[in-house]
Every structure is written in C-alpha cells, then in structure tokens.
Amino acid sequence: MNTLRTSCLVALLIAGWLTSAQAHASQADALLLDLSSDNAVAQVHARQLLPRLGMEPVPGLLNLLEHPKEAVWRAARNTLADIANETGAPGHETDRAHLSNAFLKNIAAGDHATARRELLRLLPILAREGDDIAALGPLLQDLGWREDARMTLSSINTPQAHALLIGGLESPDQEFRVALMNTLAQLRYKGDMTAILQQMGKGPDETQYAAVRVLFGSGGISQINLIENVLGAQDNGYNTGELILDYADRLYDAGGQWQAAMKVYALLLKRSNNPAIKGAAMARLGQRGDETVIPLIIEAMKQDENLVAPAVAGLIALRGPARHEALETGFAAVPELAKPMFYAPMAEEGSEAFLKRVAEEAQSGKPNAELALAALIHAASPVAVGQLVARIQGDAAEATAWLDKLQQLALRLEQKGNGAAAGDAWLNVYQYGKEPALRATALEGIKRNPAPGAFKLVFDNSSEEELKAVPAALLVSVVMQSEENAPERAKALSLLQGRLNESAAVQALCSAANAAGQAAWGAQMVGAIRSWQIAGPFPWVHEGNFGSAAIDPAKVDTAQPVQSEGKTFEWKPFESGDAAGLVDLMGPLGGEHVCAYAVARIRVEAATAAQLKVGSDDAVKAWLNGAVVHENLIDRGYALDSDTAPLQLNAGENVLVLKLGQNAGGWNFGARLTGADGFPLPFK
Question: How many whole angstroms separate alpha carbon 148 and alpha carbon 163?
Fold first, then answer.
C-alpha cells in the first residue's frame, strides 16, 4: 500500500514538473514571438520579461539577431546584453560560461554579418581571464573582420586577448600591424616581446615607431643595448626619445629603479639627436641625480653649445652634497655669457667661497657685474652692502637708484633675521640719503636694528619725544654693546631706567643680560630677588587651598630644619642665575601635588611702600613679616610679573616667605621688588 502511494506521488511530481517546464518554454516562445511582432506594446512587454527567464530564451534571441527588421534584431541584441550583464552576478558563473561559448560559436560560424558584429560587441561583457577565446584569432586575418576583432580583443584586455593580438602581427598588412601594436601599447602590454622586437627591423618607420611604443610605453623591457639601438636609428623623423624618456620617468617613479632610470637618462643625453630630449634628460639628471651626473652634463654641454642653458639648469637643480660641486664645477666650465645663471644659486647657498666669487664678479666691471650684484641683494648677502656703498660713492648720477637698492637690501636683511647687517645698511642709507623721508625711514630701520656705530646717530638725530618711543630692545643693546664710559651708553641707560616700570623693558633687559653673561647686573637693574632659602617638597593638594602650612611664616627660622608628618626637611640655599630671578624647583625638588617654601631676607634703608611682582608655576602665597600679602591659587605656567601685590617694607630687615604649589609639569618661580611707582627698588 505504501509503495503504491509513493509511486503515485512521484508520478504526480514528474507530471507537474513537465507541465511547469512546458509552461515556461511556451512563455519564452510567446515572448519571443511578441519581440519579433509589429505590436509595439507587445514588443516592449517582451523586452522587459525575457531577461527574467535566464538562459531559456537565448537560442531564440540569437536567431532574432538575423532578423531582417532592424527594430527586431536591435531589441534581441539589447535583451542579450541584459542577460549577459546579469550573468556577472555571484553564483551565475556557469550561465556566463555557457553564454560566452554560445556567442563565440555563433561568431566563428559567421553566417550573418549583423549577428556576428553585435556578438563581437557584446562578448567583452562576458569574457574573463582564462577563457578560451581562440575563435577570434582567425578574424584578425580576415580583411573584412580584423578591425572588429581588434576592437573586441582590446576591450576584453586579458592575457588571452593579448596573445591573439600578438599573433595578429603575422599579418602581411603593415598598416594593420601598426594598429595592433598601438593597441598593445595602449593596453600596457607586458608579455613576451619577441614578436615586437621582430617588428623593429621590419618595414617603414611607422612600424618601428609602433614597436618602440609597445616596448617602452609598457615598461616591460629594460635592455640598455636595445635603447641604444633605438636611439641610434633616430633619423626617421619619429621622436622615440619621448617614449624612452617617459619610460625612464616611470622607472624612477616606481621606486627601487633609480640606477636604471639614471642610465636611461644618460643614454638619452649621449645618443639622442633631439635637443629638446637632451635638455629634458639633463633636467632629470639634475633634479634626480647625484655627483656622478655632473661630468655627463658638462661633457654634453661642451659638445653642443645649444645645450648650455639646459646644462646650467640641470647643474643648479642638484641638491644635497652634490650641489656645491655642481655649482663650482659648472661655473668654471660654462662660457662667460652663461655665468650669470650661476650667480643667484651661488649667492643663495651662502658659502664664503661662493659669495667671494660672486662679489668678485660684481666688482669686475664686466657686462655681467650688475647681475652679480642683483644676485647678492636677492640672497640678502651682507657682502652687497659694501658693493652698493661703493657705487653710491662713485656714481653720483645713479646714486639715488643705488640708494633704493641699498634700502631693498636692508629690508631683505631684516627679513632674514640679520639685524647687525641690516643696521649697517640702514646706517649707510641714512648717511648718504638726502631726502628727509628717506632719512626718517633709515632712522627707524636703525632703531629696529642697532648696529655698532649707529647709536650716536640715533641719539643725535632724535628728539626727546622720539627717544621715548625708541624700542627698549635698542636701549638695552646700546647699554650692553657700548663702552662703559661712552656718552651714548650713559644716555641709553638713563632712558632705559626711565622705562623699567614696563614689563616689556624689564624682559628685554633680562634677556640681553642673560645672553651676555651678566645676570647679576641685570637682576640688580630690575630689582630681582636672587637669593633664597628653600625647603620641600611637602605634600599638598591644589583643591585643599592654602589652609594648612608646614611652617609658621611669622616665626620662620631657616637655621632649623622643618619637622612635618614625621619627616625632616632641611633649608637649602638657592642662588638664581637668571637676571629676572627665575628659580627652577623641578630639578632639585621635583614631584607632583607638592609644595615648597622659599624665604628671602630683604634689607632697605628706610620704611617704604613697595610692590611684590611674582611669576609662578603653579600656585603662590606670600607673607611679609608674618602677614599674608598675596595669594593666588592657580594652575599656570611661569611668566614675568604675572602677579603684583602691594607691600609695606620696614626699615632694616624684612622676611618674605613664599609658598609655591605644584600640580604637574614645570615648577618654578621668580620675584622682584619695585617701589609703589613700579620702578625697581634698591635693596640688599
């Protein structure tokens, strides 16, 4: 009973499948009939539904490609294109292969021209690397179909397609061989070059040129001897040098091929008969080469005077250790008329020997002399100051023009940060200038860039009001650089002391004193406290404020150690080596979330109102003679005079205590004393 029931079920399933298949087939047939009908609505409907049936309608669509009506075969062609595109989706590889084989079979049969042409155009949608497309090979030898086949293989662009294109070079038609090689060059063919090399000795120039395009356009060959042969045969009007230059560029850009690229550039320089290619090769050697290219460039220049300009351009393009040799050797080798091309790079390099050479050229009286001077000015060379002054003194008719150039030089020297030379230039502008506006400009330049010998000029030619506006840095420079008994130093010192209620002036003086190794003098000038007794580090939390203290500021005794939380802290002397009194606590104490105490004893002759100016990293609290005079719970970096607190100093000794908090990072402080008017206060 069960067996009979199972058999019946199987029979029903088979019958259902056959019915479904027949229905599917009849649907495809019906849609194909609609596609080939004159009913436009039915044709559009069929065009939409047929691609959904997969491979089923393909044979019918292939037949319709031969339909006499263009509207029908085009509809069939577009439907096949849709099906071909759908086979590219994952999981449809089998359908793709079957459809590709069907196309190739119909192409090979070639019973109908329209069908073959449309299938050739559709085949690149389906073809994949590894597919057997040999059926296209014979078409390359068919005069009527070779162009269609070439275009199809170009679109397929697989190694199999490349091999067929190479095989097509057996064609006796020279024009078609050129077309095939141009296609291979466009595809960057990198396969076996045997057949391409054979074309090098065949036929007209166009054939050889096309072969060179494949060889060097693809980067697929690197035989130097072949390059030499190609360059040696360049009398045909075809500039193969451009292709080889491009090939060498790609060798260089690829990385790891520097030596090969340099060899090709050198061969182009040696063997090319095209001046433009030689010049380009020189430029590449200069931009990308080393000292080994210098003799090559110079030798090529000596053999052809038309290459002098590109040779100089190549030499001055060299960078690194080779640059000095290239400039020196090139300058000695080039003709006189080409030497000016070296002036600017030699002056820019700035070596003493080069500056001397360019200065000699500027003084030579040669036609190129002014170009040499212009190069010195452009490079902001101090050597040019004396050159311009000599011209101002010796050429009254052109003095105004030379003064203008001297002013330009002064500005360029300022921009380069050469203040001393700029000051010298401005001084000469002032001395030789006649126009009030020019002298005023020069005087401002001297103020910005004080030079030896210029100080007296500034003071002698400035009003009292103008002197008040002289930058503090200039006054400091005069004080630091002049003889101690010089009148201008005394005047500058007087002016500077009148400005020491300004933090900018104080900062300028301290910086100059530190740089000159005169920190003690600078500290005395600005009222900085240099000597301290310091104890620490003690535990401290910023959030805890300054509420607790490890010492009693009213009874501090630096001769006795501090006992705190079971530990003993000795007082240690600290002497600041900074003109502003800066003390670095990180080195000797260090730590994070700690504090230290610093004590200074200050003696004044008479009771006086004063100010404490303090900078700290981080928080600071101050007591004077046991009384709190300042408190700033802050997390910051040190800056001169960050805080100012009023004080009342007693006659005789006063005890200043600072508590200095440290969160993290740097830890330092500095303090100075001024009168109530902000000017430094003398103390001991």
Answer: 17
DSSP bridge partners of 652? 604
Within 13 Å and on the Cβ side, how many CA atoms surround 71?
Answer: 9
Distance CA 169, CA 195 (A): 7
Rounded average pLDDT over 315-326: 92
- DSSP for 438-483 reads HHHHHHHHHHHS--TT-HHHHHHT--HHHHHTS-HHHHHHHHHHS-
Q: What is the mean pLDDT of residues 455-477?
A: 71
Residues contacting 441, CB < 8 A, separation 6+: 407, 429
Q: How far apart are CA 62 and CA 178, in angstroms?
A: 34
| Statement: residue 16 has pLDDT above 70 | no
Laid out side by side, the sheet with 608-617 consists of 583-584, 668-675, 608-617, 643-649
567-569/627-632 β-pairing: unpaired
pLDDT (0 to 100) of residue 246: 80
Mean residue pLDDT of the chain comes to 87
Strand partners, 668: 584, 617
Three-state DSSP at 546 gives coil
Which residues does 167 contact at the CB level (< 8 Å), separation at least 6?
137, 140
CB–CB of 300/278 below 8 Å?
Answer: yes
CB 150 within 8 A of CB 123: no
Output Rg (C-alpha) for the chain, integer angstroms: 46
680 DSSP assignment: B
Give me the DSSP letters along 25-45. Answer: HHHHHHHHHHHTSS-HHHHHH
Q: H or E segment at 86?
A: helix 70-86
- Measure the CA–CA gap between 451 and 432, rounded to whole angstroms: 17
Return phi, psi of residue 451, to 5°. -120, 155
**Tokens 């700033």 belong to residue:** 632
The length of the chain in residues reads 684
Residue type, 322: A
Q: Which two tokens stand for residue 269?
A: 């320089």
Bridge partners of 648, per DSSP, are 609
Does the pTM exceed 0.70?
Answer: no
Q: Tokens 């649907």 identify what position?
A: 27
- Cα–Cα distance measured from residue 209 to residue 215, given in angstroms and rounded to the nearest whole number: 10
Tokens matching residue 169: 């070079």
The whole-angstrom separation of Cα 115 and Cα 73 is: 8
Instruction: Give CA–CA dist 325/614, Å, rounded.
Output: 56
The two tokens of residue 62 are 């292939």
| Ordered DSSP codes for 245-304 | HHHHHHHHHHSS-HHHHHHHHHHHHHH---HHHHHHHHHHHHHH--TTHHHHHHHHHHH-
Token output for 272: 């090319």
Structure tokens at 4: 């009979």
Q: Is 316 exposed, middle or buried (0-12, 13-18, 19+ CB in 10 A)?
A: buried
Are the C-beta atoms of residues 557 and 550 closer than 8 Å to each other? no
Residue-wise pLDDT for 217-261, tens only, equals 665 555 556 666 666 554 444 567 777 788 788 778 877 788 888
First to last CA, the chain: 128
CA 163 vs CA 98, 101, 169, 180, 217: distances in Å:
23, 19, 10, 11, 18
d(CA 380, CA 362): 15
Q: Is 432 in contact with 392 (CB distance < 8 Å)?
A: yes
Handedness of CA 632, 638, 644, 650 (dihedral sign): positive
* CA–CA dist 619, 166 (Å, integer): 83
The angle at the Cα of 152, spanning 149 to 157, to the nearest 5 degrees, equals 125
Is residue 204's pLDDT more than 70? Answer: no
Residue 63 to residue 614: CA distance in whole angstroms:
100
